[in-house]
Amino acid sequence: MMTFTHVRLRPVRFTRNLAALLALLSLAGCYRDLDISKIACDVNEKGSCPDGYQCTAGRCVQAPAVLDTSNDGASPQVSTDSNGVDAAPVGVPDAADVDSPNNTPGETGSTTSVDSAADFGGSDLPLSFETDASNVPTVDLGTPSLDAEKHTVVEFTIKTPASAPYDITLGADGNLWFTEYGADKIGCITPSGSIVDYQLPEKGVGPQGITAGPDGSLWFTEYDGNAIGRITTTGDVTEYAITTANSMPASITLGPDQNLWFTEYWTNYIGRITPAGKITEFEVPTSGSGPGGITVGRDGNLWFAESYHASKIGLITTSGSFTEFPAGFGSPMMIAAGPDGNLWFTGYPGDTIGRITVDGTLTEFDPPTLYSAPWGITPGPDGNVWFTESGTGKIGRVSPDGSMVEFQAAAKDSKPQGITMGSDGNLWFTEYAANKIGRINP
To answer: I need a labelling partner for 351 at 20 to 30 A (CA). Which of 71, 152, 275, 407 fits?
Structure first.
């Protein structure tokens, strides 16, 4: 029997009277366990936060004892270019890549260090935030008793303009392979940042999902071309047409049966293609379910997200039998098998991260940032699950118990989408709107 739990991490709105009440309770030690960081506040309303806290970025945070102007890395920094003009702040890199002494030898990406606040009981307050030249941040939002995490982001610009990198996966050759939806290309980036891409035979096919196949090649979907493609690590391309017209194949994964399994978003099928190119289609029981992401669970079945219309998580066995589970408040988009043995998914319109066990027990968690639009999701080498926020330019991390941290890994409008773990132990992601591939250490 399916069990559902929804963990609400949204901030609640304080009134001046309630803040005053909490101030009185604090004198008696009655709310010491309350997570003040979840409280929304109004910077224009005096007293909207309890004593000892200040309203910053719409949240009540502990007021710092010292004004930090040292730019020691705990807060975002604003640099100045050779013309004396304020450059992009740390955490929001310049559009052009530059060589950096922090890069691995041979890399030409732009390097940025990003911080996060320490854990605040399931909803972490990020230290990195957006700013501009007129608002140079000087206040350290960290908790003095807890050390802030530091992560390094390196971004690599794709030479083909407006390529719209979409999905990304680890190849058998140890490189990262990604689809370029806007350029009809398949790209490859080495762990050191060298990029090469390969033009597909036809224009307008719109490659989207990509995965490593059992034959050492990369297999991908052609969303607009109604086909499944295969590319070798030397760039040879083969395409297989899907029988059902206008199927809009979206995501693809390697199954336990050594076949490739894919979703057909528009025609409501789950497809299977053998390494020899034979395609079989299975109709999802729920009409108009819009299947999106697909992955393999620890139970040896294929699990997929039924996005937008159905809001379900589906399961299909390798013999074609289906089971479906309601997905609660979220509208599932992408799905991945977590290090904890559960399935984790992003709720794109629903703004949630979901977890479902193989027996159907569902729990959903809200990212700390509202309207984050979570998209891609992948297991990390650290035992956590990592995801992209296409609405904020952030990379999120969720632990098996649902505690989350966010990192401002790219410009807010960069729209990070696909994410995967590389052979170097880092997380690699696509920036759909910024035409870049990003890397962040776990």
So the answer is: 152
CA distance 437 to 374: 17
How many CA atoms, within 13 angstroms, populate the side-chain half-sphere of residue 194? 6
Q: List the one residue out of 214, 299, 320 whose CA is nearest residue 260.
A: 214
Q: For residue range 392-421, what is the model confidence (pLDDT) as tens digits?
A: 999 999 999 999 999 999 999 999 999 999
> What was the pLDDT predicted at 428?
98
CA–CA gap between residue 349 and residue 370 (Å, rounded): 11
Virtual torsion, Cα 111, 117, 123, 129, nearest 10 deg: -50
Residue 379, strand partner residues: 385
pLDDT category, 435, cuts 50, 70, 90? very high
Parallel, antiparallel or unpaired: strands 53-56 and 322-326 = unpaired
CA separation for the pair 403, 120 (Å, rounded):
9
Task: Name the more confident of 284 and 72.
Answer: 284
- CA-to-CA distance for 72 and 67, rounded, in angstroms? 12
Neighbours of 138 (CB within 10 A): 12
Nearest CA-CA partner of 297 in 327, 339, 264, 341: 341
Q: From the CB of residue 348, how many other CB atoms can be counted at a distance below 10 Å? A: 22
Around Cβ 300, how many Cβ atoms within 10 Å?
12
DSSP code for 57: T
Distance CA 149, CA 125 (A): 12
pLDDT given at position 10: 38
CA atoms within 13 Å, Cβ hemisphere of 70? 7
Q: What residues contact residue 70 under an 8 Å CB cut-off, 6+ apart?
A: none
Instruction: State how far the Cα of 73 lies from the Cα of 52, in Å rounded to an integer.
Output: 24
CA distance 427 to 381: 9
Q: Residue 313 pairs with which residues in a beta bridge?
A: 305, 325
Copy the structure tokens of residue 222. 């052609």
pTM (whole model) above 0.70: yes
Please give the span between the terminal C-alpha atoms of the chain, in angstroms, as a whole number. Answer: 36
Give the number of other Cβ atoms within 10 Å of residue 204's Cβ: 9
Phi, psi torsion values for 19, nearest 5 degrees: -60, -40
Return the half-sphere exposure (C-beta side, CA atoms, 13 A cut-off) of residue 109.
28
CB crowding 392-421: b at 16 or more within 10 Å, else e: bbbbbbbbeebbbbbbbbbbeebbbbbbbb
Q: Residue 348: its pLDDT value, please?
A: 85
| DSSP sequence for 124-163 | PPPS-----TT-------S-TTSPPEEEEEEEEE-SSTT-
Which of the pair, 25 or 334, is modelled with greater confidence? Answer: 334
